[in-house]
């Protein structure tokens, strides 16, 4: 919009709204400056480009239909930004994003809220710029979601996980004994006996569950083929527990290679004490890497297994599980036949 057009639009707005614009822009600038180390250059550049396009769109709308045209244009931008920010916020809660992406999502929510308030006060152009900035921040975080979840779309990896599951199920059938399979993407613990599914439970995982565990303290739930080495009915801090043999030989080999090639810091440790335990089933991921079931589910599971029971943990059993994680509600604990 031309300077004359901006002046004409501004003259129609209350002084209170103009003062609010100055205030909120200052607050946003302070927030961005305070977290500048975490906001990527790509985020800032994308926001700048998008804002330029928005300003040009508003100018075109103003030339064609004046204030009401600008209002309608910004209303559409605000609606689209709301959908994108809400979707990204939901996905951020469902997978483990890095600090820069979490900051971007938080800033997107703040910026979207500011946009809505500016719109309500009649500051349509300022609201449109904020809506565009919110969309750019959310889009940047979406790239983080893709990075975290991309390996769940890798055909080679999915095939390997499916092979682990099938071999675990075959062992259960051949030995007529119980075996456990954990799908991280589905947050599902499946108990087989004699090769048949006899129980399904849902649980909470590590705070960084989507990654494969590489070292102590990374919050990831490991992936691999393990076995129960201790059944804890009285000595667990989390109701009851099944301790598995992480790290196994494969895990120690991968850790040694990561240390040798400098992928991990010299102070890194391989870790241990991975369990299936109780006090979980809330639908929120909070453990250091363990699988946490509701106590009633843990009671049911622990009476059906023994030391030596195989525990196979995979990222997913098919391509659809991660997609379901990103779009559907979190499963809450509960025993199913």
Architecture overview:
This protein is an alpha+beta fold. It has 2 domains: 3-148, no CATH class; 154-327, L,D-transpeptidase catalytic domain-like (Beta Barrel), CATH 2.40.440. The chain has 9 helices and 8 strands. It has helices at residues 3-11, 15-34, 41-94, 99-120, 124-149, 155-175, 249-260, 295-302, 320-327, and strands at residues 178-183, 188-193, 196-204, 224-232, 241-244, 275-277, 291-293, 310-314. Strand 1 and strand 2 (188-193) form a beta hairpin. Helix 2 runs antiparallel to helix 4 (99-120), helix 3 (41-94) crosses helix 4 (99-120) and helix 4 (99-120) packs antiparallel against helix 5. The longest helix is centred in the first third of the chain and has 54 residues, at 41-94.
Can you summarize this structure?
The chain is of the alpha+beta class. The protein is built from 9 helices and 8 strands.
Give the helix proportion (percent range): 40-55%
The overall pLDDT average reads 82
The SS-based structural class is: alpha+beta
Most strands sheet: 8 strands, mixed, barrel
In terms of DSSP E residues, the strand content is 5-15%
User: CATH superfamily of the largest domain, called what?
Assistant: L,D-transpeptidase catalytic domain-like
Q: What's the CATH architecture of the largest domain?
A: Beta Barrel
H and E order: HHHHHHEEEEEHEEHEH
Envelope shape: elongated
